[in-house]
């Protein structure tokens, strides 16, 4: 998906009461605001002024158009003057794209000498935005409300982040996931309702035979492998003499990418229990594909594979990285409590602190040859981990604030990429709450997306979301989970 092709429609509220001159001023200012906001580095793609709403027919028409315009990723509304909201009801009822109500004002300050009743009538967002807010609340519409001056960094950052959530929504609704093999035998949390996922999240999750991948691998040419190896040599440090093993990963990557491109898939899963006809579990191959925006998760975990690609799509162009992650083991020394995350092989190199090394080591499980993989330490910095579990009848997303640290140990015998982090509010309380909420061992770790971005995305997708932060308490979470359960059963 090309983020730059997406646009957001700026739809401004007014009415005929104030005469044509006021409406001309409103239109000119709204166009200017859309243009200036689009120029901000905090805004990921273009905001386009799409007209001033003065009648019910105009409101209905613009929302219908927004629904059917493939480039329109969301609608931003604001009321420059008062704009009676009964005329917005049908339009808002029909709107199927993410909606943000940006409560702002053209002028920053009240001008002491100039202010008179004409000024008051023209600049009455304080009035208009309350009427506009009421109708959305009355209609129980999912929408984001942002309040602040439209040239200030804080509201623009909030708006830009919401736009990224909306891009995640658009990406989700179009996402196709390729599964090689089923979920790992007997595992519960990686299971899920694929029909519900397609209805709620848009994800088309389907399976392709491993045998077809093997045929595709056999058809890969030496020249294609050479080109893939050149890419590996440029991006990574070749820390092995076993080049044939690395070339096998290149063969796997070329073959998988061909299948993804043919089917339009941006996420995939496989399992070490079904590598029929393959010599190695894809390690380096999966890691390098993830670095290009493909979502992946192991053991057939299509939910986390899909979520990884969604977070990557939302955060395109931002600093930081996003990786498939697994909670592996703890360091429980008092004052140095950390979680050590890794996977058998497949952690995305976008979270690496330095150039990753290509290494070959035996893999204890899967009964295949020693695979090539990227080995690195994760970069330090604030981030989140997020997972989606199927609660039976609904999906629950769980987000936890974390702080990645430079690993406190060298761990020279650990042959995989690893990330070490502190969990909010502290490791033991945080892990306890994650477990209380049913959080999986698989997650998406990101230092590029904020918790708010994913919370807004979850609201757009209409799924339950739980956020574990420094402010979360065990007692509060327990009550939230209980009330959520009741509410979602009624929904
Ligand atoms: Mn795993």
Molecular structure report:
By secondary structure, the chain is an alpha/beta fold. It has two domains: about 170 residues, Rossmann fold (3-Layer(aba) Sandwich); about 325 residues, no CATH class. The protein contains 15 helices and 19 strands. Strands 11-12-17-16-15-18 form a six-stranded antiparallel barrel. A five-stranded parallel sheet has the order 2-1-3-4-5, with helices on both faces. Helix 7 links the parallel strand 6 and strand 7. Helix 6 crosses helix 12, helix 6 crosses helix 14 and helix 9 crosses helix 10. The mean pLDDT is about 95. Manganese (II) ion binds next to loops.
Strand order of the main beta sheet, please? 11-12-17-16-15-18
| Average of per-residue pLDDT values | 97
Question: Could you say which structural class the secondary elements and strand pairing correspond to?
Answer: alpha/beta
Q: Determine Rg (CA atoms, Å).
A: 25 Å
Strand content: 15-25%
Which sheet architecture does the biggest sheet show?
6 strands, antiparallel, barrel
> Roughly how much helix do the residues carry, as a percent range?
25-40%
Number of domains: 2
Question: SSE layout and pairings?
Answer:
Elements: E1 7-13, H1 20-39, E2 46-53, H2 56-68, E3 72-79, H3 89-94, E4 99-103, H4 117-122, H5 125-138, E5 144-147, H6 153-174, E6 176-180, H7 194-201, E7 204-208, H8 210-218, H9 222-235, E8 237-238, H10 243-263, E9 267-269, H11 284-291, E10 295-297, H12 302-314, E11 322-333, E12 336-342, E13 357-360, E14 372-375, E15 381-390, E16 395-405, E17 418-423, H13 427-436, E18 442-446, H14 451-461, E19 464-468, H15 474-490
Parallel strand pairs: 1-2, 1-3, 3-4, 4-5, 6-7, 6-9, 8-13, 9-10, 16-19
Antiparallel strand pairs: 11-12, 11-18, 12-17, 13-14, 15-16, 15-18, 16-17
Helix pairs in contact: 6-12, 6-14, 8-10, 9-10, 10-11
The site of manganese (II) ion (MN) has 5 residues, from loops.
């Amino acid at each position: 998906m090309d983020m730059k092709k997406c646009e957001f429609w700026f739809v401004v509220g007014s009415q005929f009461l104030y005469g044509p001159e006021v409406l001309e001023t409103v239109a000119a200012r709204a166009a200017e605001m859309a243009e200036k906001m689009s120029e901000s580095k905090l805004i990921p793609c273009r905001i386009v002024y799409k007209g001033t709403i003065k009648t019910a027919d105009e409101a209905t028409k613009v929302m219908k158009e927004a629904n059917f315009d493939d480039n329109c990723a969301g609608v931003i509304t604001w009321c420059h003057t008062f704009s009676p909201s009964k005329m917005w009801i049908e339009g808002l009822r029909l709107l199927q794209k993410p909606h943000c109500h940006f409560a702002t004002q053209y002028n920053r300050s009240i001008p002491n000498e100039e202010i008179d009743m004409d000024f008051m009538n023209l600049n009455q967002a304080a009035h208009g935005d309350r009427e506009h807010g009421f109708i959305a609340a009355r209609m129980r519409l999912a929408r984001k409300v942002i309040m602040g001056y439209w040239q200030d960094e804080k509201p623009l950052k909030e708006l830009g982040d919401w736009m990224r959530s909306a891009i995640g929504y658009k990406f989700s609704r179009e996402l196709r996931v390729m599964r090689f093999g089923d979920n790992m035998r007997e595992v519960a949390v990686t299971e899920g309702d694929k029909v519900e996922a397609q209805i709620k999240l848009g994800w088309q999750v389907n399976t392709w035979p491993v045998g077809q991948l093997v045929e595709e691998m056999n058809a890969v040419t030496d020249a294609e492998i050479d080109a893939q190896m050149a890419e590996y040599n440029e991006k990574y440090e070749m820390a092995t003499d076993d080049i044939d093993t690395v070339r096998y990963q290149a063969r796997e990557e070329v073959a998988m990418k061909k299948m993804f491109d043919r089917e339009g898939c941006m996420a995939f899963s496989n399992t070490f229990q079904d590598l029929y006809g393959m010599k190695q579990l894809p390690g380096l191959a999966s890691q390098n594909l993830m670095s290009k925006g493909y979502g992946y998760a192991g053991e057939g975990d299509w939910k986390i594979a899909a979520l990884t690609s969604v977070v990557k799509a939302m955060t395109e162009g931002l600093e930081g990285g996003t990786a498939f992650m697994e909670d592996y083991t703890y360091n429980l020394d008092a004052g140095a409590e950390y979680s050590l995350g890794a996977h058998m092989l497949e952690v995305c190199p976008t979270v690496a602190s330095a150039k990753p090394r290509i290494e070959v080591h035996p893999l204890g499980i899967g009964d295949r040859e020693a695979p090539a993989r990227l080995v690195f330490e994760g970069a330090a910095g604030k981030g989140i981990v997020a997972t989606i579990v199927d609660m039976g009848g609904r999906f629950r997303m769980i987000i936890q604030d974390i702080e990645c640290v430079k690993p406190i140990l060298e761990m020279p015998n650990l042959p995989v990429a690893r990330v070490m982090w502190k969990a909010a509010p502290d490791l033991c309380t945080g892990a306890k709450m994650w477990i209380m909420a049913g959080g999986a061992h698989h997650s998406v770790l990101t230092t590029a997306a904020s918790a708010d971005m994913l919370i807004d995305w979850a609201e757009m997708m209409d799924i339950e979301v739980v956020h574990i932060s420094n402010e979360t308490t065990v007692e509060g979470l327990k009550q939230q989970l209980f009330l959520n359960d009741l509410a979602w059963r009624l929904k």
